[in-house]
Structure formats: C-alpha cells, structure tokens
Design brief:
The chain is α/β, with parallel strands linked by helices. The protein contains 15 helices and 15 strands. About 45% of the residues lie in helices and about 10% in strands. It is elongated, with a radius of gyration of 27 Å. It starts with 9 loop residues before the first helix and ends with a helix.
Length: about 475
C-alpha cells in the first residue's frame, strides 16, 4: 500500500472510522457500565470517599478476551456473507451497484431520514453472569454475546462492511475489511480496559455530545455507498486488479482443462511466483492489487462468464512496473503486429479460443468496441490472440488457423486476431484461463488483466481506467 491517504486505501480508512463510530454511538455507550461491571469482576473497589477504582491489569486482561469474542462474531457474520461469494462473483457489477445503493440507504437510515424498523430490533443471546466470578473465558463468551446486540447504530455500519466484504476482490480483502472494522470497534474497548475509572467518568459527562457520532457515521456510510456504486472504491470492488508475477491455476468452477502448451523455456517469471499473490485467479473484479497472475503451468482453462476481474497497478498496489512482453505476430489479414509499436496507445489484448463459451459471449462486445474506437486508428488498440493447432504444434489450445479464420468470418468479427502458433506469447503472459484480457498502458507497461468474461460496460471501464494512468 502506498500511503494511508491514497485513493486505493480510502475504503479501509472509512471502514476503520465506521468501527470507531460504532463504539461511540448511543447503541454501545449505554451498555458500557454493564460491561465494565462484569469485566472488572472482583477488581472493582470502592474507596472510603465513595469513589470507585478498578484493578487495571485484571480489567484489561478480561477486556482483551472480550474483544476477541466480539471479533469472532464479526468474522462468523463475514463468513456467512462470503459463502455467497461464488454467486455474487458471477454478477459482480450488478451486486456492486446494488450494494452501493444499499449502503447509501443504511446511511440515510442512520441519519434518521429513513425508517427501517427491522434494524431497530435488538438480537441478543441472554445469559446470567456473576460479576465476581468473571474470568477470561467468560469474558470471551460475553464479548461474543455482546456483539449480537444488533441495534440501530451497529447494524447499518456492520452491514455495509459485510456487503463490501462479500463483494471484495478476494477472501483476503474481505477478511481485511472485517478486521479493520473490528479493530476500529475494539480499540476504544481496550482503552477503556486500561483507563476504566477515568473513561467511565468522562463518558457520563459527555453523553450529550455522543449523539452526533451516529450522524457522522451516517454521512460516512453514504459516502462509502456512493464510492462503491460509482467504482471510486476500486481497491475493494473495482474491475481492475494488479498484475503480479506468478499466476495460480484457474478455479474449477465453470472451467475446462486443456492440454499443456509446449515448453518454450520462457520461465523467467516463475521464479517470482507468489509475489503479492493473495487472490490468484478467483475471477474477481477488484482493484485490490493483490491478485496474482494466472498460470504456473502454461495450461489454459475456460473461465466462467462475467467473472471480470482486472488486475491493475493502481494506487493501492506496490506500483511495481511490469513492462509488457513484446512480440510480433501475424493476424488473419496477414498483417504483422509488434506490441512495442503501439507505445503511446492503450492496448486491449484479449486471449481467447473458438471452443470457449464465455469467449463466444464477449466477442461480439469486443467487435463493437473495435468499431466504436475507430478501428484501431486512435489511441485505443483492440487485439485478439489465439493459439492455433498445426502439424508442428498439434497440442495447441485451439483449432487450426483456417478454422479460426472461418469462425471469425462466419460471425462477422473483423478486429485483428493474431496467431500465436508456438504458444510463446501465451507462456509469457502465463495464460491459464480463456478468456483473459490484458490492459497495456501508453508507456508499454502491464496495467492489469482480467481472467474471465466481461460485460461491455466493464470493458469500457477498464479501458478508461488504463487511459487515466498516462495522459
């Protein structure tokens, strides 16, 4: 990550703030005296003058376990959301936009503009404790129970985080979102554990000011919702993910294994496999810049439709510049294309196969883009790459060159499609899933890639995102 104020990390800052504001809300504050009374246990002492003092070490130990209990519940809720991830991943764009609208609605509710009665119900697991018998285990259980007191303030904030976690670009990012929210929510508890006596006296004297915390939280929710809907929050729910060196195997869902490409000896990238590779080819749309590249073996898998996850070097990545691998290939018209000749332009480089159903679904959109972007005569270059079989390379991943040309003529596709007859280009770009699209910026660097089919609006979005990198 660059700096905490960079655009790619704004979402995490807001989530952290939501966690803190969830604590400083009328939903939590009234429970603090009760919580303190239990966690202090036998450490609570009344002085001769009637003032109350707490054993700091004992209360802090209990508070740590109490905080862990709260975190357990948050992650359980997060897991219940991410269990739906495989479904939402198929409808990423729609879910991101609907999620953004829902987060805005939650923010409006928190501001008091909307009335959502179901969020006003408390859901608590009730049990009886003797405060003098408090121990770390009971504190853990109490924290877990306390976290399910789903009242008007915590409900919208936590819901918005879980929505973003379920739609995050990777399990790592989703869990990180929940962790950041939990950290923001728990830090005040830990401070209370250290300064119990002083904190309780302070909170009792400042309750009138705390009512504004919930309003500020509502404003932040609305901001997060707008960012999610518009794609500003691309580090979590965007369409481009970072290209890192070392791709994982594509997932089994909606994919077909094809024979390995012949070994061309282009293994230079494999030595760095795994670098920043938290998400691999999960077919996610996110600019989390932690997604790995898609292939260690050179095999090609068909990726399910609508799993457009571009991996782009945005402000949330380590910004390691990776020059695009140069090549010279011939297209269906007999014209040669050298990638480096397109420096100064943005290249949309799509790897596909005639047998691949997701490829067939997105090819008409690619053809439309080729026409709309003026037939590669301006700053946007649309290119396709196939891997035709031949007598010399019978195990390549597609049918013969003549059959590919016939397929294109039959369907009216006119955009340039180059033939990687040796498979070296697929090896260089570590293609393991069809379709896979690489975005090359104007400086000739790999800005990102998408393992999976995209809708046309996502294609336009990633082109615009790549254009914005270098003007």
């Amino acid at each position: 990550m660059d700096g905490i104020l960079s655009i790619g990390n704004i979402s995490f800052i807001l989530v952290f703030l939501e966690g803190i504001l969830s604590f400083f809300s009328p939903c939590v504050i009234p429970l603090i005296p009760v919580y303190m009374g239990y966690l202090a246990g036998s450490g609570k002492k009344v002085e001769e003058d009637g003032s109350i003092r707490y054993d700091r070490n004992k209360v802090f130990l209990h508070t740590i376990f109490f905080a862990v209990g709260i975190s357990f519940a948050f992650f359980i809720l997060g897991m219940s959301f991410t269990a739906l991830g495989s479904f939402f991943n198929q409808h990423k764009l729609l879910f991101t936009r609907v999620g953004g609208i829902l987060i805005v609605v939650l923010g409006l509710f928190q501001l008091g503009i909307l009335d959502l009665s179901f969020l006003q119900r408390e859901r608590k697991i009730r049990f009886s404790l003797d405060e003098k018998k408090m121990n770390p285990l009971l504190a853990l259980v109490m924290g877990f129970t306390f976290s399910f007191a789903w009242t008007p303030c915590i409900g919208p904030a936590l819901s918005s985080v879980l929505i973003m976690a379920s739609g995050a670009g990777s399990a790592f990012t989703g869990n990180l979102l929940v962790s950041v929210y939990a950290l923001g929510f728990l830090i005040p508890f830990l401070i209370l554990g250290l300064f119990t006596t002083q904190a309780l006296n302070f909170l009792k004297s400042k309750q009138k000011l705390l009512r504004y915390a919930i309003k500020l939280g509502g404003v932040i929710l609305i901001l997060m919702g707008i960012m999610t809907f518009t794609g500003w929050m691309n580090s979590v729910s965007g369409y481009l993910n970072s290209f890192t060196i070392g791709q994982q195997e594509a997932k089994d869902s909606g994919q077909e294994k094809v024979p390995d490409l012949p070994d061309t000896g282009n293994d230079a990238l494999k030595g760095e496999a795994g670098t920043n590779n938290e998400t691999g080819t999960n077919n996610e749309t996110g600019t989390n810049n932690e997604t790995g590249t898609n292939n260690e073996t050179g095999t090609n898998n068909e990726t399910d439709a609508n799993n457009g996850a571009v991996t782009g070097q945005d402000s949330g990545s380590s910004k390691k510049t990776i020059p695009a691998f140069d090549f010279t290939l011939t297209d269906q018209y007999g014209n040669e294309h050298t990638l480096s000749d397109y420096k100064g332009k943005v290249v949309f480089l799509n790897f596909w196969a005639t047998w691949c159903p997701p490829c067939k679904k997105e090819l008409p959109d690619i053809e439309e883009l080729y026409q709309e972007y003026n037939l590669n005569k301006d700053e946007i270059i649309i290119l396709g790459v196939t891997n035709p079989a031949s007598t010399e390379y019978p195990d390549n991943s597609d049918v013969s060159m003549d059959e590919i040309k016939a397929f294109m003529d039959e369907n009216g596709y006119t955009f340039p499609v180059m033939f990687d007859e040796t498979g070296e280009v697929l090896k260089d770009y570590m293609i393991s899933a069809f379709p896979t699209t690489f975005m090359i910026d104007k400086e000739g660097n790999i800005f990102g890639y998408v393992p999976g089919m995209m809708t046309k609006d996502i294609m336009v979005s990633i082109i615009n995102e790549t254009l914005a990198v270098t003007k």
